[in-house]
Amino acid sequence: xxxxxxxxxxxxxxxxxxxxxxxxxxxxxxxxxxxxxxxxxxxxxxxxxxxxxxxxxxxxxxxxxxxxxxxxxxxxxxxxxxxxxxxxxxxxxxxxxxxxxxxxxxxxxxxxxxxxxxxxxxxxxxxxxxxxxxxxxxxxxxxxxxxxxxxxxxxxxxxxxxxxxxxxxxxxxxxxxxxxxxxxxxxxxxxxxxxxxxxxxxxxxxxxxxxxxxxxxxxxxxxxxxxxxxxxxxxxxxxxxxxxxxxxxxxxxxxxxxxxxxxxxxxxxxxxxxxxxxxxxxxxxxxxxxxxxxxxxxxxxxxxxxxxxxxxxxxxxxxxxxxxxxxxxxxxxxxxxxxxxxxxxxxxxxxxxxxxxxxxxxxxxxxxxxxxxxxxxxxxxxxxxxxxxxxxxxxxxxxxxxxxxxxxxxxxxxxxxxxxxxxxxxxxxxxxxxxxxxxxxxxxxxxxxxxxxxxxxxxxxxxxxxxxxxxxxxxxxxxxxxxxxxxxxxxxxxxxxxxxxxxxxxxx
Length: 508
Fold this sequence. Notes:
Blueprint: H1 21-32, H2 38-47, H3 55-90, H4 92-98, H5 103-117, H6 120-131, H7 135-160, H8 165-171, H9 176-215, H10 218-227, H11 231-255, H12 264-276, H13 290-294, H14 301-307, H15 312-340, H16 344-359, H17 362-369, H18 377-403, H19 406-413, H20 418-423, H21 426-448, H22 453-456, H23 459-469, H24 473-500
């Protein structure tokens, strides 16, 4: 009797498989490469060790960095406070404790989902048309999607970590608020503290990206310096940003084990507003010119014709293709590099590498790559993938440090080679949570295609920029709607894949 055997790849090999896409990317870049900008890239690299020390330049960059930090702190504090409250309201467990039914939480989740599906850059560009250039535009652009994303993460964590004590507490006749405080809050304090800390780092990067597209802060200075080929001035700003990120990371690591850290987001908006009053940042509440946005949209006769102006299958396909390329690079590059060069020394060096990739915004990375190759979807995916590989690399480094290196030492003492001991040791230990987070990260990459589509001259991001520049509001509406639907479909698929790994990612 024949026995059918199904061969499946070992778990630690699965994170390495997306790295095979690098072969195709290299082939495309070799075909499209021209090398005309190689002297400029050499000048860019040389400027890293000779940044500008001009007092005027440093003063302008420090002012821009402070504006970016104020925007990040203000949006982080608002989104954290509102997100925790909405997360409890979106929790099915909390809804059943308070009302006895689950449908209010499910309904609220469905209503909030479209808000997080729109990228913060799109929020910023839309709000900019209504309110003009104002500090609150950038703050609200970050706070709106971050609040709903925080609510989603909190609700998922509450529903996935139901305490066995809940039935006992409810059966004893305890008040709903007592059941929540006693049975739900204590197990979630540390994960919530970690996630709130990570969101500050994300808010800082989002504020930087908004600045790249003209909403003020250090990102605007970096973009202008790069476009004018003033690499020394650009590196002065990057080094200041790197110092700020290192200090911020050290502070978060010191406070991450402190449950009272949850008080800091409550105080950060007050600190940020007081700080912002001493800067060149307009924080008075703006008056919206809603007629600018809705004057043409109210004319429904133009809606159908606007929807037919774009070849939607081609645009959606190019967006998904950029997402796939970037997702493969971001997922496969960190474990592949760790396997090529295993060891504790490489961990420290690779941590610096991933920090550098997170430091440079994806649009600026794309502009640097354009010096070496023609615009293409592969180039756009590479730029986005390199930025997100910095985030995935940090996740991998943190997971390996948390699990320890004993498994690698044990395998090595048994005669295994260094690469085999790391593959079936630390990489095997962290593969499942790493893949779970990679699925979530692909959702983020899909949203981030809005900021990188201009490199390939295709995708929803490119079409959105064109529609905004021509004030074609019906086309903007259709593009934003399509982007939101794609993001929600991606999240739904990601949740199914996460369920297959029997765990949920604590989103960073």
